[in-house]
TrEMBL record, chain A:
Residues 1-25 have a biased composition (Polar residues). Residues 1-28 are annotated as: Disordered. This is Iron ABC transporter permease. The keyword Transmembrane applies.
From TrEMBL, chain B:
PANTHER family: HEMIN IMPORT ATP-BINDING PROTEIN HMUV. Pfam families: ABC_tran (PF00005). Signal peptide: none annotated. Keywords: ATP-binding, Nucleotide-binding, Translocase, Transport. This is Heme ABC transporter ATP-binding protein. GO terms for molecular function: ATP binding. It comes from Nocardioides endophyticus. It comes from the Bacteria. PROSITE patterns: ABC_TRANSPORTER_2. The lineage of its organism: Bacteria, Bacillati, Actinomycetota, Actinomycetes, Propionibacteriales. InterPro entries: AAA+_ATPase, ABC_transporter-like_ATP-bd, P-loop_NTPase.
Amino acid sequence: MTVSARPTTQPAGPSQRRTPQQASSGHRRITRSSILFLGLTIALFVSSLAAAGSGQLPIPFAEVVGSFFHHFGLDIGPMPTHPRGDATLWSVRFPRVAMAIVVGAALAVAGALMQGIFGNPLAEPSVVGVSAGAAVAAACAIVFSLTFAGDWTTAVCAFVGGLVTTLAVYLLSRADGRTEVVTLVLTGIAVNAVASALLALLMFLGDTQAREQIVFWQLGSLNGSRWQYVAVVAPMAAVGIFVACLSARSLDLLALGERSARHLGVNVERLRILLIVVVALLTAAAVSFCGIVAFVGLVIPHLIRMVTGPGHRILIPASALAGALALVIADTAARTLVAYADLPLGLLTSLVGGPFFFWLLRRTRRTAGGWA
Amino acid sequence: MSAALVARGVALSFGPVAVLDGVDLDLHHGEVVALAGPNGAGKSTLLAVLAGDLSPDAGKVEVLGRPLEEWRLRELARHRAVLTQEHHISFPFPAQEVVRMGRAPWRGLAEEDRDDEIVAESMDATDTTALADRAFGLLSGGEKGRTSFARILAQRTGILMLDEPTAALDIGHQEAVLQRARREADNGSAVVVVLHDLSLAAAWSDRVVLLSYGRVASDGPPAEVLTAPLLSSVYDYPIDVIEHPVTGDLLVLADRQAAAKRKEDA
């Protein structure tokens, strides 16, 4: 450490004081992020249109593009040649793709937020049981035929269920201002167990139709998505993601621990409550019509961190884009892998996410030097 | 010298244990005050109360003449910085970004324009520039301590609270950290620092506040507080204080002969 007698105030401008190394590292990160954002946006747009074209009634990519732009009054590309092509796109395919985008973005951001609040890279709505909690409350709405809020009833119930579960997990799994991996995972097991029991009870109580719908939830699927549902879920996700982006800087500081974040001016208690509500909102948005789609919130933020580093200002919007992209692709796979069958989406994400979670668990244990 | 920080009659109990019991403390601009005392004497707890992390059961704390609870957190963060003992981080932020977090309270103000310059200066002063791109979590204990100190410096506050800033540091870096703290005080800041090494406290502080069982056992210039009889009684261990023959620095040492004798007698 040099103990130079240089005065504290330096007249030189910021650019002059920056060492070349720091300047280049900052520059590198910015370029990387802009490439990532650009790439994700293009990939999301292209894959969404490609997804809309594939299915039992294949529609060529150019015609999908044409139908899309014509809808907005732009005379670009050819219209679908099949007589039912345009109608199929706008009444079945596009709402489903839109739902995949909304749900993917909501789940990935919910995961990134949870990891930030818990200070733990393994926190995720489905792992800790928040998705299951939201699903229980949503199932109540079905079984007891609740309609107090019209189209929004299921979503409102899912939100309340998600909020109660998030708060419970948060209070149960924290000690000394942070959450250890073991405590978090074990809390998740306990919460998931209770939620499964309640779901089983609801299935027992419900009629055949309700039972079928609950089973469909547990598997997670975008089958039967309609614009009406998208109109409920999209505003919830939009509000949640917007608030998440606004909280990004505070989340960075929270990584230093609660005390240090407070010393840097973050109102930790307020931030925590706000973000727990946002996590519940985002999870409810995903769960209310599509059921439990697990591990998206775990895998996506983690991959983004590997590319751009842990800063939440980039992590949160990039996770939203990447989550949307991942679900568009996964859902297309779910409905095209097996001809004339619509595989449950949750099955696919768990098939990929489960092993990833295991790998992450092993790695976290190793780098943290124990189960901390 | 105006008062930066005033604590009066601060008392705090954890269950039946009175950790702090009527502590008074004054911290003025331009001075370094060392908090010393045995393990469990209440040094870190006192610092946590002064920082606003813990609310005392009784007594009051004022920062720049205003009661602590009336401050908005962000405004307070522009006036005082706190170096905690633990340097933990949840995600692999590079060291440079950790130091930059110290600039957060200044966001949106004119001072923000100097962020790059201040971060570079703080890292230079703590010898952490070479660590800039390394993940904070993977640094050694001493490197983490210096990076955290750089973050505190980057906050550019008039009050510094340092909880064992020299822990895990080698002797050269210990000196450099305290020398920098000294310089901040000479430039008008108020510095309160928890120190275990009493020779360091003697060398770098204007005043030593010696805590014992949650009370102030003594408060004054190092030469008055750091005396063999007082220290031996507070630490319950024979302690010798000698003057360096050339520099006149106070050296606080364990009196091992007396300790061995005491053991034989017992």
